[in-house]
Write a structure and sequence with these properties.
The protein has 475 residues and is an alpha+beta fold. The chain is 41% helix and 10% strand. It has 17 helices and 10 strands. The strands form 2 sheets. A 5-stranded antiparallel β-sheet has the order 1-2-3-4-5. A 5-stranded antiparallel β-sheet has the order 6-7-8-9-10.
């Protein structure tokens, strides 16, 4: 075995650990004593928590475990040495009395190591995680499924202490807590406890990877080959249930930023390619970022995408929209004047027509735009349903006088109008100047829609404060 390595100690600010500078393939690692630590969880990784759970499940007296945690927090654990099957440290009582404490862990047999290494080499992700000093949960699960217990369980942490306690005492409990902190930073310490150091593990993984790449086999290659089944073994229900306490917790739901990020500036000293307009690309990038931010915010809040006003109303996604519809969606975001002008001319609209179209979009998205710009005639069945709803909407003698043209019912005096959408909803319209403008959202009740068309001034009915001078040529 090699001699002790020197370490830089534990970082007091962040709880990080220094590592021994000994050869990582050696049969011993030493970690310097940690300074006192106050508050916070003792371990931050799922495998560190699994180690402490094994201690809690093994110790017969929970008070000894709590006392050991206090010892560890107070910095009473000296340098920790890790060997195959054993961890050792000197632990001091508050009165200064020092005891050598050891905790023994069963090492894996060569055949068990073969199965574990074969599992690890089957996934590049397992190898990458190990080399990044992380313990892949799926590796631990798969290993347990073939009878290899990498993490300790009930009764696996066997105490030996100079205080001659026959069960876990505060000294061995403190040592176990200190090792949990070590395992946070260096899960290879666990592999050494189980019998093999980092270099030995890495060399074995490389040999197996080379054998797989060359079509050969390494010792014990493949669970399926060893079992003669040609495929991986399954995991029994009992084994899966036994893993419940060592699986990592679900990550916390991320909190999105308060606003979408700013797109990069594309106006550089390099001339753009012919036909490429940096300002237009910047505008489209900003629109994409805004839609992505809104989608993420709604999904993380547990609402269906676009639920704030609906996909049709909010214009969250341009998928499935025509170029003319998407131009209105973009214009509804109040872009710079030069962008609005391009959107209008590109879709064959005047600026006034685009203003009315964006007003409709804000009330109901693509559905409202279709009611504004398209005409349809209800068939006899749809017309009968519409007339029945109109007849039922008002009390006797209160119904306004309406004349129909296609799917549009115009009130006497030609100042208010109801338009029937193909989905059976009624849309309120109000005449301004020489054209009709949308006056509110759709409603299943024609009387409610008609009220929106007749009550209040033009600005009162605008969801976003659209210009009162907007007008449409759609008569």
């Amino acid at each position: 075995m090699s001699g002790y390595g020197t370490t830089d100690g534990y970082g007091a600010a962040d709880g990080g650990h220094g590592h021994g500078t000994t050869d990582r393939g050696s049969e011993e690692l030493t970690f310097a004593a940690a300074p006192p630590v106050r508050g916070g969880a003792f371990t931050r990784t799922w495998w560190g928590r699994a180690w402490l759970k094994a201690l809690e499940d093994t110790a017969l007296d929970g008070r000894q475990v709590k006392e050991g945690r206090r010892h560890a927090r107070a910095g009473a654990v000296g340098a920790v040495s890790v060997w195959p099957g054993r961890i050792t440290a000197v632990v001091q009582d508050p009165d200064g009395t020092a005891y050598r404490s050891d905790v023994l862990v069963r090492t894996l047999a060569d055949e068990e190591w073969d199965r574990l290494l074969d599992l690890a080499v089957e996934s590049a992700g397992h190898i990458a995680a190990l080399l990044d000093h992380e313990m892949p949960p799926h590796l631990v699960e798969d290993a347990a499924g073939v009878g290899v217990d990498l993490l300790p369980g009930i009764g696996d942490l066997e105490p030996e202490c100079g205080c001659e306690a026959w069960d876990h005492c505060p000294h061995t409990a403190a040592l176990c807590h200190q090792v949990a902190r070590i395992l946070d930073e260096d899960p290879f310490a666990l592999l050494l406890l189980r019998g093999r150091g980092q270099q030995a593990v890495v060399d074995a993984l490389q040999a197996r990877s080379a054998a797989r790449a060359g079509g050969g086999t390494a010792a014990g290659a493949g669970r399926g080959a060893a079992a003669g089944t040609g495929g991986p073994r399954g995991v029994s229900a009992a084994e899966a249930y036994a893993l419940r306490d060592i699986l990592p917790p679900l990550p916390a739901v991320p909190v999105p930023d308060a606003a979408p990020g700013e797109p990069p500036a594309l106006d550089t000293e390099t001339d753009p390619e012919p036909g490429v307009e940096p300002a237009a690309l910047e505008f489209l990038a900003a629109d994409t970022a805004a839609r992505a931010h809104r989608l993420l915010t709604e999904l993380l809040a547990g609402r269906p995408a676009g639920s704030a006003r609906g996909l049709s109303a909010g214009g969250l996604s341009p998928w499935g929209l025509s170029a003319a519809e998407d131009a209105v969606r973009l214009a509804a975001g109040r872009p710079p004047a030069w962008v609005a002008g391009r959107l209008a001319s590109g879709t064959g609209r005047s600026r006034a027509e685009l203003d009315v179209a964006t007003r409709a979009w804000r009330w109901g998205g693509a559905a409202a735009l279709a009611v504004l710009e398209e005409s349809w005639t209800p068939d006899e069945a749809a017309l009968a349903v519409a007339e029945a709803r109109l007849a039922e909407a008002w009390e006797d003698g209160e119904a306004p006088e309406l004349s129909r043209s296609g799917a549009r019912w115009t009130a006497a005096g030609a100042r208010s109008q109801l338009r029937l959408g193909e989905d059976g909803r009624w849309w309120p319209y109000r005449r301004v100047g020489g054209g009709w403008i949308p006056a509110g959202p759709a409603d299943r009740d024609p009387a409610a829609a008609f009220t929106a068309a007749t009550v209040g001034g033009d600005r009162d009915g605008d969801p976003e404060g659209a210009d009162s001078g907007s007008r449409s040529l759609s008569e």
